[in-house]
Amino acid sequence: MLELKDYLKKLEDSLVYKGWKADNKDSFLYIFFRIMGGNDNNEDEGWEIGFFDRKKDSSTSFIVNSEVKISAEDSKIFKHKDEDVNDFDIDKVKIGPEQALSIIEKIRNDKFKNEVPSKKIVILQKIDVILWNITYITNNFNTLNFKIDAISGDVIEDTLKPALSFRE
Fold this sequence. Notes:
Layout: H1 4-13, H2 15-23, E1 28-37, E2 47-53, E3 58-64, E4 68-75, H3 97-111, E5 117-126, E6 130-138, E7 142-149, E8 155-162
Antiparallel strand pairs: 1-2, 1-5, 2-3, 3-4, 5-6, 6-7, 7-8
């Protein structure tokens, strides 16, 4: 699988991105996003890479795989009104997605062995630190969320909640 930096470089080298960036100079990288099947850690469907513009309070995301295309432009993102969106430097990321998923699998096997993932939502973002924010949707209809420091590999948080608790 390509490294995240390779996906970002492929995006930045594309005509689609260059044309968009010329009109969106204030936008900055804020997220890598991917949905994976339960046990298919090695599928290479690419990444969705998002950029945020504070002036517009909106994001634009690109899908980067065999080709590059805009997946959503000038979209509102889910955040609290006063919450800030943070940029990050991809060069500071030391823990890749495979390493983060490996760390998570050890925790899942120890603490949550009955929670088998059917889908994995994998996000790289900066909240207070650059982190992997990974959520498993499990066969038991639960959400198992992990936050892993993308520089040190330390586990910041792991939580298990019923999926239906998000309806409230």
